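Any chance you'd type out a single protein's sequence alongside its tokenized fold?
>
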Amino acid sequence: MTRTGHRRLLVLASTATVLLAPPAAFAADTAAGQFAEWAADRTVTRQMTLRELGFRQPLVLSGQESQREIYLPVPAGVPTREAQLQLDGRYVRGHAGRSSALWSVDGDPVAARSITDAQGDASQLIGIDGEPRETGFARVGVGWWSVVSDLRCADQSAPANVLRLAPESRFSYRFDGRAVDTVAKAWGALPLHVRLLVDGKALQAPAYDAAWRVGAALRNGGKQVQVVAMPTVGSTVDLTGISIPASLQGVPAYAALATGGSHRIGSLAEVGALLSLRDSGPLAADVVIGSDALRTAVRAALDALAAQVSASGADAAGAFTAWRASEMGGLESAAPAASVRVASVAGRPTLLVDPAAGAKVAGLLAEQWRRYALGSALTVEQANAPTLDGDRVLLSRLGNMAGTLDIVTRGDRSATFDLGALSAEGRLPDQLVLDVSAAPNAAGQGAVATLYFNDYLLGAKVLAADGTPQRLVARVPSYALAARNEVRVSFLRQPARPYCHDPATAFPVSVLPSSHLVLAKRTLDTGFVAAASALARPYEVYVPASWLQDAPASLDTVIAIASAVGAAPASAQLKVVQGTAAISPAQPFLAFALAPSGVRPAVVRDGHLQVAGSPQPLLDVSGLDRAALVQVVDAGGQLGVLYSTLGAHAPSLQQPLRLLSGDLAVLDGSGQVNAIDSTDPYGARRAAQDNPQPALQQHMVWLLVLVGLVLFALLAARITQVRRRRAAANRGH
């Protein structure tokens, strides 16, 4: 049997398993049976929607032919099972004829449907085979075709035939946690929403420092991070949605948690019970800052729970002890000299980070190095960004840019990078150089290559029709630079059909490995882009000491802002400031609720926001709440970013955001950024600096004036010379 046929059988088997499986596994009858079941079963379930994957708007396919591909994240190199994508969709057909939809997995067709009705439901359950995918993605293709007329040469365009796929479509799968045996695989197995567990609401500086660095590395990797503190007796936890097995409700700690809703912890045994609840519990952590305080708290909670379980019988006590050794041993004991390791905690693979190595682990988890984390327990001596030598960087080092693809109408290649990864000694991207080649189509026409930098069109060219390599060079204007950047090349073709009934045929195009960015020394205004460049080098992070007393809330803010401004988490030095004393930064800095001496931030107390202007303020407003201000300032020659809360309550910053332009931004937690350049609110300076005309053309008027003055001076000199000769001649006579 071919590999393709084998995969199709696997897809069909997976779909049948999903459809025929019982709603839930049989629950254990006793406490001993439940702990034995937990110890044996390390199945991890993941579920996400297309909206959570970034598809905030419906996917719409329309016309005669339209195809889209959806990349679904799965643990790299780990087999999955019961993987399925439930696509919720509808179709509308405003044209006659017939339409067809086709679904494929990694290029192999798995389902098709012919449609003739005017409108209806187009939902489709797609089973996905469980073969390990080294790329970390399962590729699902959706195709939509319409035939308006059976006449071969009739107009087949059908813009009113539309297939709409909802962002609420759900992707789910399961995998065996025991297959996650390296730190690299553990990173790939992380969910979109990561829980980061710390030892308590109040943290010591080393644990706080490690938590914000690792959290920022996770957020830079596309994860949403929720910091969770180990609860204590008297703490309040939200138990909405948890599931307590009936076999454990004879144990007092589990019985107390079965009430659900908001619950006040009444004993240490209840904390131990929360730790055991696997995916449904509020302490089901994906990453743990493994401080001594955390291990002590976990040990005390499990000891208290063990006492209650032992009271229910000797068999339950024995099963609990075995479960504790296999599922909690990694959390209770430290691994000597291990900076980061992966261990099974309550049935799920969890990354355990040594607080003393937070900066090094954050460097290891950066995109440059995380694929090299090929071990279950790693000691990280160094994990730094490589030093940039020279003024050219290959695009293939920034992403999967180089390669060949077949194009019918359009195809894209892209690469992303943080500005700080390239900005060294003031050098920034100045030119985008693309080396490309393309085969001609059936009509002998060349493709069109279009260059984009952060969605700004920088240049385009019709490529030669003989397939020879060509170089495209475009200057990168300063307004296109951002803390995180995307380079994209789009190839466009006009589909050629020598005869009207011929099908459109794909022809190859290539982005050559020599494509690169040219760096040059550039002066940026004092704004977020300049701050991102400065915060790639060693910098300082200032937080008030009071923020360490409410670590989960303040860490969420520090992680979100550090990621939003493009700060490199491995390059920072944390400084805890007592009270509201003024800071004196000696390096570029990131400050929270603090300001340098001599620098007047835009915000003052009681939620009063004032943006300076001349001769009067640009903005002066009070009464703001659940908002925050982020501002770029210069303190004694050191560029920094200040964060201040507006009002009594800070906004939630869980939504992804990037600070791109300006030097002042107001955030409300929605993911939207209201930014302004307070020194150039109308952009006059940028309009002058980023004039795309050549310098000679920009100054043509002054050049003409200068030429005119020179000609006038020469003419005047000539006239004077002629007059002098005539006067001399007259005197001679």
Observations:
- The chain is about 25% helix and 30% strand.
- Residues 101 and 144 are 5 Å apart (CA to CA).
- Residues 700-732 form the longest helix (33 residues).
